[in-house]
Amino acid sequence: MTTKEKSNASREEILGRIATAKKGRTFNYPEPNWEKNIYKEIEPSLEECFVNELKNVSGNSILCENEKDVFAKIKELMVEKNINSIFCKDESIAKQLDENGIAHTGAKEDFTDMQMGITRCEFLVARTGSVMVSAASPSGRQMNVFPPIHVVLAKKSQIVPYVADALKGMRERYEILPSTITNVTGPSRTSDIEKTLVLGAHGPKDIWVFIDLNA
Predict the structure, then answer these.
(1) The pTM is what?
(2) How many distinct structural domains can be found in the chain?
(3) 25 is a domain residue
(4) Residue at 147 is within a domain
(5) Is 93 inside a domain boundary?
(6) Tens digits of per-residue pLDDT, 29-81?
(7) What band does 200 get if pLDDT is binned at 50, 70 and 90?
(8) CATH number for the domain including 173?
(9) Counting Cβ atoms within 10 Å, is residue 206 exposed (0-12), middle (13-18) or buried (19+)?
(10) Structural domain range at position 131
(11) Cα separation of 190 and 201, whole Å?
């Protein structure tokens, strides 16, 4: 018997066993409840749920009373981290940094040496503690992955319950979706090496989300 004939015989034997096993069996599966929410409930509120979920994945979020409070707390973080200047490519954020007396730079020659970078986001997903960002941001793609410390400016109105809600919002916001849409869930991490968790493996080691509760 040739190799091909042996292969065909083995195949027929396996198919025969499957057919025999199926004879006389009936499978009664319950009808799924298509209306049931498969996700955990959002508790106790959207913003608090986001804060808790981000904390669970080693991220940080700060609830702020207003815009002034946001930048005051960013100043405090920079002092705590001993950082003198924050890298910013978004002109509107740069203007806010100027108004609040926060040193910043957007010069190309300073990019590779940055210690902290600041961007906006598209949405915050409460259930997963994720920050949705896209290539449509004035900060571009690099600012979401390069800074060792990633500072994100967000508004309470940007917090949605689930990823599906954020994607729906993106479709409503953009006639043509951005080339990339990414969910950032906590600092970059890996445990490929000896199953030891390492933060900052492929991106920021630290993420801070400042949420303006008045916006």
Answers:
(1) 0.80
(2) 1
(3) no
(4) yes
(5) yes
(6) 788 888 887 777 888 999 999 999 999 999 999 999 999 999 999 999 999 99
(7) very low
(8) 3.40.50.10420
(9) buried
(10) 46-212
(11) 6
